[in-house]
Fold these 3 entries.
Entry 1:
Amino acid sequence: MNVEQYDFPAVDFWQVWMRHRSALYKRCLRWLGGNHHDAEDVLSQGAVKAATYLRANPQRVLEFRPWILRVLHNLCVDEMRAHSRVVPESTGLAPRAPPPAASWAQCPDQAVLCCEIGRSIEAAADLLPEHLHDVFMLRLIDEQPYEEIAVALAITPVNARKRLQQARGLLRDALRPLA
C-alpha cells in the first residue's frame, strides 16, 4: 500500500490539502448522506482545524491521509449529531429545540444571571488546588483532549481524567450553597 508521508515544516499544507480536496469532499459527502452544504462546511472546518494543528505540531502527523480522514469523520459525526438534536416544529409531538444563545441576550435578567453564574464558577475554579485547576482549565476552557493534557502536564491520560473528576467534585461542593 502506497502511503504518502509529508514533512510539514518543509511542505506547504495548502498544497497537500488541494491535492486531496476532491477525494476528501466525496468522503464527507458520503458520510453526511449526500448533503452538499454540510459537506462543504465540514470540509472548510476541517481545513482550518488541520492547518492550525499542523502549524503548532508539524512533527505529530506522520501520515496525512488517515489523519485528515479521522479529523473530517469526527467533524461529520458532530454535524450529524447537531442536526439530530433539532426537532422540526411542524410535528408538534416532540419537544422543541432549546432557544439559541442569542435569545438569552434579549432578556436583561437572564444576561445578568449568566454573568453571575460565570463569575461564581470562575471564583470557585480559582480556589482549586493548582494540579486540579490546570487540568480543569485545559479540558473545559481550552477543550484539550486528555492525551494532550497528559503530555502538557507530564501525567497519564487516566490521571488527567481523575483530576478533572476531583475538580468537578470540589466545584460542585463549592457551588452547592448557591443553588
Entry 2:
Amino acid sequence: MHQKSVTVDKLLSGSLLVIAPHMDDEVVGCGGLMLLHEDKRRLHCIYASDGKKSPTALLPWQNETDSDLAQIRKCESREALAEIGVSPENSTLLNLPDGGLSRARGELERRLENEISRIDPNFILVPFRYDLHSDHVAVHRTIRNLKRSGRIRGTVLEYFIYFRWRLIKGRDIRLRIPKGNLLHVDISSVSAAKRNALSRYRSQTSILYAWQETPILTEERVQQRCREPECFLVADPAEPLLSCFSSSKYWFLFAHYVERLGKRRKDQVLAFFKWALRPSARQTG
C-alpha cells in the first residue's frame, strides 16, 4: 500500500496488529488508535519480551525486585487490553528476555513471522526505527527484514515512545520528519479511556521500591501521552532507514547512538551521587 493511501479511516477499519517490545508500549504509543477502532475483534497485540526488567535498579546493590514481576506485568497487560476491548485470545506473549531482544533476533524473527502469518493483518504497528531502547530497535529491524524479504504482508507503520531527544533542536524527533510522512490521530474523544488503560500498568505508574524516586511512567508523561494526538510514520521498508529525515541525516544517526547508549549511563551516575550524598551516607557513626 502506498504511503499516501494510508488514512486514519483505513486504520480504524482494517485489521491491526500492534507489536509491543514491552507491556505498556502498546497503550502509550497506540492506545488511542486502538480505542477508536471500529471493530475490536480485528485488533491484535504481540508482546515480544517478558517485561521482567522494568523497573530495575540503576545501582547494582539496590537489587530489590519482585521475582514475580514478569507475571505481574502479564496480568497488567490483560487488564489494559480489556479496558480497550481487546480479548485475551487476540494477545500473544513471546516471553523473550527483556533487554535482550537484539541478542535473540533469530528467535524473535522466527516467532514473529509465524504469528503475523497466522493473523495476516492489514496494518502492523512497530516502534520507530530510531527509538532510544535497544528492544524497540530490535523489533523494528526484525519486522523490516521480514517485510523486505516478502515473508509477511501488511502495511508497516511506526509509533513513537521515546521521542524526546536532548541533542536535537526542539528536542522532539518527530519534528525532524517531514509532516507529509506522518499520520496524526486525534484521540481527544478517548483520552480518559486511554488514561484508564495506562492506569492498569501499576508497576509502571507507581513507585514499587524504596530506591525509586519516580515511577517509570510519571504523571506528567501519562497526561502528555493521553492529551496529544498519536503520531505514526508510514514506513517503506524498501527505502534506507535514514530516508525518514529530510536533512541532517547523519547528525540524527550520531545523536541516536549517543542518546541511546548515554541515557542509562547518565542516569546511573546521577543515581550514584544521590545515593552517596544521602544523609545516612554522610553519617560517621
Entry 3:
Amino acid sequence: MRAAVFVNGKIAAAADAVIPVFDHGFLYGEGVYETLRSYGGKPAHFGRHMRRLRRSASLMALPVPFTDAELAAEVQATMAAFDAPGERYIRMLLTRGVGDLTYDPAACPTPSLVIIVKAFPEPPEEQFRGGVSIVVVGVRRNHPDALNPRIKSNNLLNNALAMQEAIRRGAAEALMLNQAGVVTECAQSNFFMVSDATLVTAPLDEGLLPGITREHVLELAAGLGIPAAERAFRAADLAGASEAFITSTTREVMPVVRIDDRTVGGGVPGPVTRRLLDAYRAGVRQED
C-alpha cells in the first residue's frame, strides 16, 4: 500500500507509519473518522466533514483539540508528501489516544490524530453508466441505544459483517435494515429510491449516518425542483422503486439497477439519478 501517513505530527510512508498498541483506537475502537476525496487537488466538502467529525466526537465525549484551520493544514501537508499524479483519497482518524487498559477516558489525556493520503481509486465509469447491484443483508444496523449510527466510529464491525455478506452474494453494496425492519442505509453509503415520482430516503431517526453526500443530494434535489421526502419504508417497498441509487464521498451518486433478484427501472439508470449525478459533479468543486 503506497500512501503518506500523518501520525501525531510526523509524516511517513505507509510502511513506516506506526501508532502505539496501547492506543484506545486500536484496543477498543474508541475513535471517529472522516473520509474525504479531492477534486482538482482540493479536499471536497471539508467544512461539512469537520462539522460531522466534531459532532461524532461529541457523542462519545472525545475532545477535538484542533481548529479546522489546523486540521486543514495537516491534510495539505500530508497531501503534499504523497508524490503521485491524480486525485487523492484522504482518511482522517481521531482516537481516544494512548492509555492504560481501562475504559476510563481519564487514562488517555491526549487524543491521537492520523491522516492517510493515497491515490483516489476512481470507480469505473461504466458503473455510473450501467449501475450496480446491491442486496438486502441479514445483518441489522446498530440500534441507536446500543451504538449510535450517527457516530462515524472507527468501530466498523457492524458494517464489515454486512459488507462481507454482500461480497459473498456478488453485490456491490449491502443494504441494511434496522431492528424494526425499516430500511436505513448501506454498509458504505446512503440509499435513495424514486417512488411515485418522489425521491425518498430514510430519516436519520431510523438509525443511520448523516451522510455528507446524502445531505448535499437533498439540497440539489430542492434546487432542481425534484420532490423529495425523508420517510420510513421497508424492504417490501423497494419493489415500487422506479429508480435507486447510493451516495457517498467516494461513489458520488451511484445508480443501482438491481436489488436482490429484482431489476430496478428496467436495468438502466433513471433520469432523476442522472440529473443528480450531473448536478453533483458540476458543483462539488466549488462546495466547501
